[in-house]
Amino acid sequence: MQKKSWRINEKEYEYLSAVLESGFPGSASVSFTAKLEKMFAEKFNSKYAISFANGTATLHAALVAAGVGPGAEVIVPPLTMTATTMAVLFTGATPVYADIDPDTFLISPTSIRKCVTSRTKAIMPVALYGLSPDYDEINKIANQYKLTVIEDDAQCFGGKYKGKMVGTLGDIASFSFQNSKHMTCGEGGMVITSNPEHAVSIRRFSSLGYGNVSAEPGKSRINKNELVKPDFARHVSLGYNYRLSELCSAVAYAQLEKLETFIACRKKCAAAYSEVIGNTSWLKAQKNPDNCENSYWAYTVKLVNPEVGWTDFYDKFKEFGGDGFYGAWRLSYNEPFLQNVIPEYQRQCPVAESTQPLLMQFKTNYGSEPEIAEQAEALRKTLDFFGR
Ligand SMILES: Cc1ncc(COP(=O)(O)O)c(C=O)c1O
Fold it and tell me: Is the CB of residue 55 below 6 angstroms from any atom belonging to ligand 1?
């Protein structure tokens, strides 16, 4: 008996069944992974798309492809899900924190410039909540100092910057298919790049360093005639097994076919929240620069009313039928595991410090007009309660 939801329906079941019916005869039979990668590359205007088990492994592989390792520094924002920082640490490099813009909540190019040292190897901006950082300015810095730019676009599918797709603005871009994201297969991820050397390195890293993998979809399998021989040398470099399973690829492929619908739902929901907030002076929504299209993984607002506490607002919103919302993650360098590791001088992001506690991340993944209306109405009642 198939149980369906607005995000998961016939196609996911159909493609999953096809994989199960294949009986996993061997890696040569893989097809959804190849189809997914091909379609993803086309949709995101990229030469290569390489699938991964999650959107942290993607960042790890991208950093290694950029030559990041022990002794190097990578500039990252402190306000993001901490996987951005963890991926840098996996390589043995040091994350260096650039402060954020108080209105867009995104990494600030002015602050990035101040963080560059002779050890900086890469910049890893995050398209936070679905909004693109200022890539013209970031790329200027990267070109000047010969740094690789890795986009962490886990939260941004279908965002645009000056008319260009988010994902095509740096050297390498990373996406996540974790369950809260625009498209999902439970856990998964994708790296895109148009640089063939980066692409081969990333594929190899995801695939235990097998020498005969290719960046091209579907050609990344071991040739059986070679493989059976006892003197076959398989591994030319150190790698992880970070591959996306065929089952997850089947679901992700069905999701990718519907991606535009998912993005449209999120935007519709954001528009409904925005209409309710209107000119309320003490709620500042994430500022959307005119040249950017936000894809609204979340609709995020800053609560700037000294008389209304974050928890008071949360409780009232729930009381009025709201689904709840999330506070922003602690700044990465303030997470317990890092507090004593990152030196004090690298923990000076005053704008992020003052902004993070005030943020409210409203969910946008609702699939129907009534659900969106219900959340918007709860927000309206909450604002009326506290007085606009
Ligand atoms: C900005 C950002 N980067 C990286 C990740 C990590 O992705 P995953 O959970 O797929 O490993 C996430 C996911 O939640 C994220 O939001």
Answer: yes
Report pLDDT for 221.
58
Of all protein residues, whose CA lies closest to atom 8 belonging to ligand 1? Answer: 55
Q: For ligand 1, is residue 81 a contact (CB within 6 Å)?
A: yes
Alpha carbon separation from 296 to 81, 157, 273, 302 (Å, rounded): 16, 9, 11, 15
Q: Evaluate: CB of 152 within 6 angstroms of ligand 1.
A: yes
Q: What is the pLDDT of residues 322-366, one digit of tens each?
A: 999 999 999 999 998 888 777 676 678 999 999 999 999 999 999
The fraction of the chain above a pLDDT of 90, given in percent, is 86
Ligand 1 centroid–CA 111 distance in Å is 23
Q: What is the CATH number of the domain that holds 318?
A: 3.90.1150.10
Are residues 246 and 299 both part of a single domain?
A: no
Number of domains in the chain: 2
Read off φ and ψ for residue 98, nearest 5 degrees.
Answer: -95, 145
Check whether residue 274 and residue 197 sit in a common domain: no
Q: Could you list the residue range(s) of the whole structural domain that residue 325 is in? A: 260-386
For residue 122, the surrounding DSSP H or E stretch is: strand 120-123
Asked if 304 and 169 sit in the same domain, the reply is no
Q: 1 alpha carbon to ligand 1 midpoint, in Å?
A: 32
Task: Tell the residue nearest (CA) to atom 7 of ligand 1.
Answer: 55
State how far the Cα of 345 lies from the Cα of 349, in Å rounded to an integer: 10
Burial grade of 208 (CB within 10 A; 0-12, 13-18, 19 or more):
middle
